[in-house]
Every structure is written in structure tokens, then in C-alpha cells.
Amino acid sequence: MTTDTETRTALVTGANSGLGKAIAHALASRGLRVGMVARDRIRGEAALDEIRTQTGNADLHLFLADLSDQAQIRDLAAQVLDRFDHLHVLVNNAGTAFPERRLSPDGIECALAVNHLAPFLLTQLLLERLKDSAPARILNVGTRINTAMDFSDLNWERRPYRLMRAYGQSKLGNLHYTFELSRRLSGTRVAVNCVFPGVFRSNLGGTDGAQGLFWKLVDRLIGWALPSPEAAARPLIELALSPEWEDVSGDYLAKGRRLRPPAQTLDPNANRQLWTLSEQLTGLASPSS
User: So which residues are the signal peptide here (predicted)?
Assistant: First the structure.
């Protein structure tokens, strides 16, 4: 990374609470210019003000977007490109889960839309800026689960919907995408890795509605025994900033250690298949694709 920390720029999704907020705080405390992506303006502004006060870093920027809506993701990318002339770190952190099947404004099952297609689309739209800013790093915050994606039914139209199965399969997309993107970025000095932050106190699923009540119950039962988001963020900050990780790309990592990915994600053909499907679902595919 450049030695002039004041010129380094990072963008963090899901930055108004939990792990995303902890990552944004840590980056700001190190003097980076930080873009914070949040869905809710009030919560986003509260998080930004808190980080600004605690770190003394005034170079913080709030971007608003509902990441289930591809039109808003495209608008988000346009705003980032307009405001940031460089982008050195992109942390795709936002994630969610739903107790029942629901569709995004684009007609896509919402866990898939937020957990996989949103980072796919946002990263692709920002990729040239990351390349121009190289050396740069992309961190896709993943999970640890042994499953496989059903490419024939990504939208859960034929199978009974299950919260954790849908969540796990959508997050598996982060690994497929990381591995294929790393191959495509070879020689660009842009590194991309998928990171499992471990189990920590989280507000996964938000604070409103049935999914919020579900995760509040989980937090009440076992949250007391889990690490804080700040503790979970520390290894990710090392991956984002430490010189020793600059040339490491295409890995699945937890606390600086390599994890063995689920078998399906080790198949380059499966990586490419999901890439093609993702291009189609986000409208990035060329007419001849």
C-alpha cells in the first residue's frame, strides 16, 4: 500500500453497525479516507458521527443504498466513483438472512441478492478504479459452511425455503466469486480474498421485523459468550493494510490462516458457471453471453 496513509481510501458496506462499523472505525483510526455504506440514513449518520468523534478523522463519507436493489447499487457505485479519485480497499461486509423467502425489487431471492449479487455487482462496477489505484485489496466477508449452491434453482423457486440453507448458499457465492475474480485479476496488483471473521456478536438480519426478532433471540441465548465485532475486525484490518498480505490473493482465510473451502468452490468450472449466472442476474452480461 502507499506509504502516504492520508491518500488511501477504503469503502466498507454495512458500515453502520457490527463488524462493518468496527472495520470502518479501525480504518479511520489509521488515517484512511473511509466511505461508509449504510441502508438507513439516521443510523448511518450516527455511526459516522461516532467514528469521527472517537478517531478525530474528518475524512469520512456516508453513502446510502439498499443492497437488495440493483438500481441503488449502480447509483452507489456512480457516487463513489464521482467522490473518490482512488480506491485502495473495498470491504464487502454487508450480509443478511431471512426467515422466509422474499424477493428483491429485481425479483431475486433477497439473501442471494444481498449476500452474493450485491458484492459481485458493486465490485465489478468499481473494479477499474481499484485497478487504477493498485496496489489495492478486496475483502469479501464470508462464512464457514460446508454446502453447495444449486445453480439450477438459485432463486428457490422449486425447493422448500430454509433460512440457514439459503443464507449458506448465498454466502458460498462469495467464495466462488473470490476465486474466479482472483484469476481474472492476475497481474493487476489487485488482491481479492474471502475472509471468515469467526463467530461474534452480530445483528445479522437487521433489527426490524421477524428476522430481527430471530437474531435478537440468538444474541440473548449465546451472545454473552461471543467476541465483540471489534475483536473480529482486527484480522481483517491486517489483511486490508499489512504489507505482508499485499500479494496474497484468491485465498479463504480466518485469523490469518488458510481454510479449506467447500469442495464445489474448488472447481474452476463451477466458479465460472456462477460468474456467468451472476452477470446475467445483474445485467452485466454482454448480448452475446
Answer: none
